[in-house]
Amino acid sequence: MSAQNGFLANGDKRFKLTDIDEETLNSGAEGYTATQVFVKNPACVAYTYDDIIVMPGHISFGLADVDISTKLTRNIELQVPFVSSPMDTVTEHQMAIMMALQGGIGIIHSNMKPDVQAAEVRQVKKFKNGFILDPVCLSPESTLEEVAQKKAMLGFSSFPITDTGKMGGRLVGIIANRDMSFIEDPSVRVKEFMTARDSLTVAKEGVSLGEANQMLKKSKKGKLPVVNEKDELVALIARTDLQKNSDYPRASKDSVNKQLLCGAAIGTRPDDKLRAKLLVEAGVDVIVVDSSQGDSTYQIEMIQHLKSTHPNTDVIGGNVVTPSQAHHLIQAGADGLRVGMGIGSICTTQEVCAVGRAQASAVFHVAKYASKFGIPVLADGGIKSTGHITKALSLGAGCVMMGGMLAGTDEAPGEYFYQDGVRLKRYRGMGSLEAMNQGGEKRYVWDTDATSVKVAQGVSGAVTDKGTLRRYIPYLMQGVRHGLQDAGIKSLADARSKLYSDSLRFEIRSPAAQKEGGIHGLHSYQKRLY
Fold first, then answer.
1. Do the bridges between strand 105-108 and strand 82-84 make them parallel or antiparallel, or are there none, so unpaired?
2. pLDDT tens, position by position, for the chain (530 residues)?
3. Catalytic site residues?
4. Do residues 306 and 315 make contact, with C-beta atoms less than 8 angstroms apart?
5. Number of C-alpha atoms within 13 angstroms, CB side, residue 340?
């Protein structure tokens, strides 16, 4: 047998090197189609991400050519298929801002009063790259001891001073580390050593980032306060932030006002209609109706209300794991679906309630059904690595929603603490008793009837420090690109085309194969992600 011009000669038969004969293709040597794995399933087994592996494909393109842009809902497109979960230890405005800057989107949790949640959304929508809209302020009557405490807790030493000690007060000065270097008395008032207002370089409200940068260069200062016509502090610009936040070309922005995209979660109780109204007034782009089991009359009525009352705001329904569940929410008007039940690292729904589904099977079946109606699917939970993200996207998901993967980052709510020498942050399920006591129970109890006994469907724990999303999200993006490239997939649209045309192949991994596919055979090792 010899090769000539890309063909193999075999007797009188000639065929392309890229072709595989039907006997080989159907033997399982090339893996199996998703239909064979998930539909023609005589063992009646549901599969997790770890249970399956994607077969490699032909690579005819570079890593930079892999397009991971996608659709979150019918009307919202993202450059990056990452969504932060609406959990009170994961997403508030800091997380939502950085997720949007990196090309994804954050969903603000609802374990807070409606007006507070709306204020969180407003902070995201009003964010301007490089402008600090909620700087920590002190009053002239604050003491050096209080400054030292703030410095130790927050990790920086420059603070604007306003007459009220709060953002929006009249600017009276600023303090930096050099102002207090030689002061030993902790009871000394800030007004005695601050740099006074008349000695400051300030910018007027409306200044552009470029103009502010030039002012900082000219003044050789590290901070530039921004004030309105009443000399009230409206923002602060830091030289270090200008350097770090210089450019986010993939940032998720709305097409009208060019503001960052932001989502928010609500429940299914009657008072959530008022919450939704406040969120829409604050500029929210997508509302996630947040229920552990989304196929209920309560959620259907809420989606119908939202689509009739706020028709310009997209709605994501869920959570669902079967096509019949998805069908009811699509009929109600949902613009997207959230898939997953009981598979999060801090979720115990399957254990406590004996209801749910393994996530790989749930994503495939719901995504395939929803694709008939043009409804994108959000794979929520069970993500522990970039490989899991790649598998979710290969099974038809438009985006992945992450909780534990993003908890522990600088942008997640909460403060770091040390345990056994390891830097940690709190992370808890919204079904944990701690979260339920602060309002999280509405995700699990949909009506307004009083419940004397709370049944926990989650736990509280801690996760290790992951650093800033500025470094972490690019790592996740690059890992996904590598995975898609190895599978011969050039874009997420290409992934779905190959999935539903049976060109994309999978195999089921035995427990031994899963062990072999991980780190093994070492006495010790250090695992660094990036």
1. parallel
2. 444 444 444 444 444 445 778 888 888 888 999 999 999 988 889 999 999 999 999 999 999 999 999 999 999 999 999 999 999 889 999 999 999 999 999 999 999 999 999 999 998 988 876 677 778 899 999 998 888 888 777 667 788 999 999 888 999 999 888 887 778 888 899 888 888 888 888 999 888 877 887 888 888 777 889 999 999 998 888 776 655 555 688 989 888 777 899 999 999 999 999 999 999 999 999 999 999 889 999 999 999 999 999 999 999 998 999 999 999 999 999 999 999 998 876 677 767 777 889 999 999 999 999 999 999 999 998 899 999 999 999 999 999 999 989 988 889 887 777 777 777 777 765 655 565 565 555 555 545 555 555 655 555 667 777 889 999 999 999 999 999 999 999 999 999 999 999 999 999 999 998 888 887 778 777 777 76
3. 347, 443
4. yes
5. 25
> Which residues, in sequence order, are bridge partners of residue 14?
9
Cα-trace Rg, the chain: 26
Q: Give me the residue label for tokens 């209300």.
A: 305
| DSSP per-residue codes, 187-253 | T-BGGGTSEEGGG---EETT--HHHHHHHHHHHT-SEEEEE-TT-BEEEEEEHHHHHHTS--TT--B
Give the helix/strand (H/E) hosting 359. helix 359-371
| Contact between 72 and 399 (Cβ < 8 Å) | yes
Report how far residue 49's alpha carbon sits from residue 517's, in angstroms, rounded to the nearest whole number.
Answer: 13
- What is the dihedral sign for C-alpha 388, 364, 99, 442? negative
Helices and strands (H, E) in the chain, number of each type? 17, 25
Which one-letter DSSP state was computed for residue 35?
A: I
Length of the chain measured in residues: 530
What is the number of other CB atoms lying within 10 angstroms of the CB of residue 521? Answer: 6
